[in-house]
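Run log, item B.
One chain of 320 residues. Sequence copied directly from the ordering sheet:
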Amino acid sequence: MNLLITGITGLFGSYLYRAFSDQGIIHGLKRQSSSLSLLGEDAGKITWHEGDINDPLSLEAAFSGMDLIIHAAGLVSFDPRDNQRLWTVNQEGTKNVVDTMLFLKIPKLIHISSVAALGRIAAMNQVNENQKWAESELNTAYATSKYHGELEVWRGAQEGLEVMVFNPSVILGKVKENRSSSAIYQYVIKEHRYFPSGKINYIDARDAASMVKKLFLKNQWGERFILSKEGLSYREFFKEMAAVFQKKPPQKPVPTRWIWLGLLLANIRNWFAAEKTILNKQTALLAQQDIVFDSSKSTSLTGQEYYTLQETFLWARNEN
């Protein structure tokens, strides 16, 4: 089998490579400027194609002869200046992937989305795969772009593609990777004082990649799956992280007044340091939400045994 992964040089893409490396010849799409550091020595085992999901001609050249595309490329940002870029990458880029696959008659697509694409409303405290998108002040531009990217995937399914859609929560990698959500570790490492009152939904990157592979091998086409170990209060999440990292955990809940939330934002704006993110009033409100993303559907089908949070933090701290 010839399998191509977009976003293979990113955090989750690199773990998807490791999970699928025994499934055939792995091809990777990369830009000329892409760093291969997350792949390490594995970079030499990949058949590379230079291109971009917003360049349809390069996609046609790269996708030719493929049996399966794993589309993991995307942009995470909460900076209002990136709103148009979010749409360009997450919606238009996904449309280009789908259209190229249909043109080349490539049969199977695994799409890596986000729990953000399921949408948020204030009264919600549990979400599963049946959640319907609803307009809300809690839906960021990032969430909207991922939702519309998913619509392109389901449109492709109506036109003949076999698709699987995955909605991961916060994917925890290693501290040294310093990509996307892995930068959340810096909040505890720098011993900030405040914790949001809501819950964080998370999954170890190794568990998430393993579940994608297991569901692929089970031929769960036409389905959507949430990938998340659990929803845990930020207080407990940070407390356990601090114990492993031998740091002082945040001790004070975030005050409810927005002026004090602004202080929190100043402290945590580097959580997603892979992009020039600015956490704002909207994202601060999200951090106060007591919401759990229910992954029982994927867990029951795969029998996944998750790493404990302590095991994840010990692994994340390890420099090797």
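Observations after the first pass:
- DSSP finds eleven helices and 14 strands in the chain.
- The CA atoms of residues 113 and 150 lie 7 Å apart.
Flagged for discussion on Thursday.
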